[in-house]
Structure formats: structure tokens, C-alpha cells
Amino acid sequence: MNLSFFDQFSSPSLLGIPLILVATLLPALLLPSPNNRWITGRLSVLQLWLINLITKQLMIPLDKKGHKWALILTSLMLFLLLTNLLGLLPYTFTPTTQLSMNLALAFPLWLATLLTGLRNQPSVSLGHLLPEGTPTPLIPALILIETTSLLIRPLALGVRLTANLTAGHLLIQLISTATTVLFSTMPAISFLTLIILFLLTILEVAVAMIQAYVFVLLLSLYLQENI
């Protein structure tokens, strides 16, 4: 039974070929295709409004120098948002429940923000490792602590996204299994668990959107520290 609960997190395959690439590229099919007209219907208006809203929210903590990253951050936000939401559909696979994929997204972008700071303002970037006014005996310990906290940032980004989505998927599967098992023996309890399952699904939709936003927002804050 334990294995069956975690089978949903294993990458599906067809004829021995992993389908995680298909699951990763599927959200791109929902984006508007190039057209000679800016607006082709209500759906395109809604998509443009959503993209504009996401871009504004992500650019709030950044100054003008950071606006060069608008395309990267907005694209990452849309990708995570669509991937997380599509993963809540039945019989689907969520690539963002894989820690390896989340680290592959977090580490290069975090490293890019760090290298940007070291190239543009090395003294300020290195100055974050030692707070101003630190007593002399505490300097080695604080430098070690700040360096460690800096290096685990991409790991924290990946683990946070993976843990939240994995926990939500497990809860949904557990409660849905309980609803099915109790339906024949205790219909009243089964109906109660069905209501809980419905509320939990709404909560997971919110978690999927919030986690995508938090992932990109933290990257934008790391970028702001280095520009």
C-alpha cells in the first residue's frame, strides 16, 4: 500500500522511454500562439492580463537594472504555475514533485544572480557575508554561517517546492482512498470525507499557485541583493 501511494511520483514511461519531457512541454501548448493580431479572442485577453499582472508583481522588488530579467522570471512563473495546476488533474504527472527537476531550475538561476553580483559589485556582494558592526571574535563564525546560508539557498528553493506539492498530492490520494473504501460500509462518513477532499483540492490549487509565486519571488529577491 505504501508503494502504491508513492507510485504517482515516479516518472511515467512508454516503451522504456521516460515521458517527463512530454509532461514538461505540455504547459507550452496552453500559451497563445504567434498571430498577426495582438488580441484574437477573450482567452488571449485573459492570458495577456495574467502575464501583465505576474510581471508587475515580480518586478516590484526590483529596480530598473533588474527589469532585464523580466522575461526569464515571468516565463519561469508561468511554467511553474501551469505545471503545478495541470498536475492536480486526475491521471496526470507533476514534474515539479521531482527534487532533481526543481534543483535544476533553482541552482542555475541562483548561480546567475550570484555571479551577476560578483561581477557588477563584488565588494557589496561579499559584504553580505559579514554584517556591519560585528564583534571581532564573532567574525569567523558569522562568515561561516552566512556562507552556508548563501550556499543552501538553491537547495531550500527546490526542497520547499517539492515538499509542499508532494505533501498535497499524498493527502489528496489518502483522503480519496478513504472516501472510496468507506462508501460501501459507512456512506455518511464517506460523504464527510468527500467534502473534506473537495476543500483540500481547493486548498491545493491555492498552494500550487502560491508555491510557484514564492519560488520566483525569492529568486527576484536574491537578484535584487546582487544588483
Automatic annotation (TrEMBL):
It is found in: Mitochondrion inner membrane. GO terms for cellular component: mitochondrial inner membrane; proton-transporting ATP synthase complex. It catalyses: H(+)(in) = H(+)(out). One of its GO terms (molecular function) is proton-transporting ATP synthase activity, rotational mechanism. It holds the Pfam family ATP-synt_A. The keyword Transport applies. The chain crosses the membrane at residues 12-31, 43-62, 68-89, 101-118, 138-158, 170-189, 195-223. InterPro entries: ATP_synth_F0_asu (IPR000568), ATP_synth_F0_asu_AS (IPR023011), ATP_synth_F0_asu_bact/mt (IPR045083), F0_ATP_A_sf (IPR035908). Keywords: ATP synthesis, CF(0), Hydrogen ion transport, Ion transport, Membrane, Mitochondrion, Mitochondrion inner membrane, Transmembrane, Transmembrane helix, Transport. It is a multi-pass membrane protein. CDD domains: ATP-synt_Fo_a_6. PANTHER family: ATP SYNTHASE SUBUNIT A. Belongs to the ATPase A chain family. Component of the ATP synthase complex composed at least of ATP5F1A/subunit alpha, ATP5F1B/subunit beta, ATP5MC1/subunit c (homooctomer), MT-ATP6/subunit a, MT-ATP8/subunit 8, ATP5ME/subunit e, ATP5MF/subunit f, ATP5MG/subunit g, ATP5MK/subunit k, ATP5MJ/subunit j, ATP5F1C/subunit gamma, ATP5F1D/subunit delta, ATP5F1E/subunit epsilon, ATP5PF/subunit F6, ATP5PB/subunit b, ATP5PD/subunit d, ATP5PO/subunit OSCP. This is ATP synthase subunit a. It comes from Henicorhina leucophrys (grey-breasted wood-wren).
